[in-house]
Amino acid sequence: NNHEDPTTKTMEDFSGYPIHESHSCISNTLSALSVDAQTLQNQIDELSSLSDTPAPSVTRILYTEKDVLARRFIKNLMRLSGLSVREDAVGNIFGRWEGHEPELAAVATGSHIDAIPFSGKYDGVVGVLGAIEAINVLKRSGFKPKRAIEVILFTSEEPTRFGIGCLGSRLLAGGEALAKALKTTVDGQNISFFYAARSAGYAKDQDDLSNVFLKKGTYSAFVELHIEQGPILEEEGISIGIVTAIAAPASIKVEFEGNGGHAGAVLMPNRNDAGLAAAELALAVERHVLESGSIDSVGTVGILELHPGAINSIPSKSHLEIDTRDIDEGRRNIIIEKIRQSASTIAKNRGVRLSEFKIINQDPPALSEKSIIEAMKASSADLNLTHKLMISRAYHDSLFMARVSPMGMIFIPCYKGYSHKPEEFSSIDDISNGVKVLALTLAKLSIQ
Ligand SMILES: NC(=O)N[C@@H](O)C(=O)O
Ligand SMILES: [Mn+2]
Ligand SMILES: [Mn+2]
């Protein structure tokens, strides 16, 4: 063993990597990285067919029949890649490639396969199928990890069915409050979380989800590959985005109740219209966001429902769901307070009752780990791929994995930055570049 050789010693001190092991195996790996692009594209296309809406749109909601079929599809691919597969009580799925020092904390990667109504086939999916292919790439190159590498399929990154995003990763990160809340959580059809989970084969004999919580130090690093969901990389012709921070998301549920009544017979001065209260609040959300004076503040009313929802009946109830985000948590919280104030002012002015103003989640932003950013930058450089540092305005499971593990994210370009709609698209070349950077980054992190 060549530790006696002073020059080698310094290199090891300098890089912190055991020279012989790292550089040689990484450089060998580097030269042998080949992505099976056609197979990967076929898998993306096949998975997109497991949808409750017609192509090119994809709709795949948590614990539905299509979701269960898609989960089976992923588990098969994990097994085909020689990974040992396990699932937890809410359906987070783990595929493990054992390392030659299994007692060390593993390196993890992963994303989600659930898709909001009428969305595209790349959001989340690239980070799951791409992660499995990244392991295939490393295996093909003859690389042997020291730390185990795990691919995670996170349950319900999208908030569609039970109104809370990143349900699986929040629980992995020790979401006590969420575990408690899920005992009484129902979806829009009044189906309980546990009934739905059991119909999909999860949460068999228990509703105590504390065993989903990850033990501290389970992972030494977590890296997620994802489409940018913005136009920057495509516009600037850059291949790889290295995420330095993830914006802080929050969501609010609001309900107004008024008197309702006949659209013809009730005169305007005698109305307490819950629908107009909702409309006024929606515009107030936009105003308060713009008042922040920062381009980084955003606010969306993505759900606005009126009851009874009849053209000739004055809305007696209205339901809004508000999504507001910012990379500056303080600035976002000021917006939330302004929205709360407006809701009660509007209710008073219009003589309707503010029957609910509930903050569903109000999460802090997350910062990527410096050493992982360095590993992603070095991997991109090693692969001669242009790259830039950027922030994520969309949230991801990484936002919560950052609570229990050093975190990093790799972005790839997507067509016009489209996402959450059927026109969402990333080329297989861009996806393959992302898979290579992910593979090399996982290799570097797994020999640390
Ligand atoms: N990445 C992504 O689309 N996450 C969403 O759930 C979101 O709303 O940001
Ligand atoms: Mn999404
Ligand atoms: Mn996503």
In brief:
Its EC number is 3.5.1.116. The protein is α/β, with parallel strands linked by helices and 448 residues long. The protein has 14 helices and 15 strands.
> How would you classify the helix and strand content by structural class?
alpha/beta
**Number of alpha- plus pi-helical segments:** 14
| Rg, nearest Å | 24 Å
Helix content: 25-40%
What small molecules does the structure contain? Answer: (2S)-(carbamoylamino)(hydroxy)ethanoic acid, manganese (II) ion
Order of helices and strands: HHHEHEEEEHEHHHEHEEHEEHEEHEHEH
Mean pLDDT rating: 94
Characterize the main sheet: 9 strands, mixed
The number of strands is 15
**Regions with little confidence, pLDDT below 50 for 5+ residues:** 1-12, 14-21
Shape: elongated
Q: What share of the residues does DSSP label as strand, in percent? A: 15-25%
Distance between the termini: 19 Å
Cofactor: Ni(2+); Mn(2+); Co(2+)
InterPro entries: Amidase_Cbmase, Bact_exopeptidase_dim_dom, Peptidase_M20
Pathway: Nitrogen metabolism; (S)-allantoin degradation; glyoxylate from (S)-ureidoglycolate: step 1/1
Keywords: Endoplasmic reticulum, Hydrolase, Manganese, Metal-binding, Purine metabolism, Signal
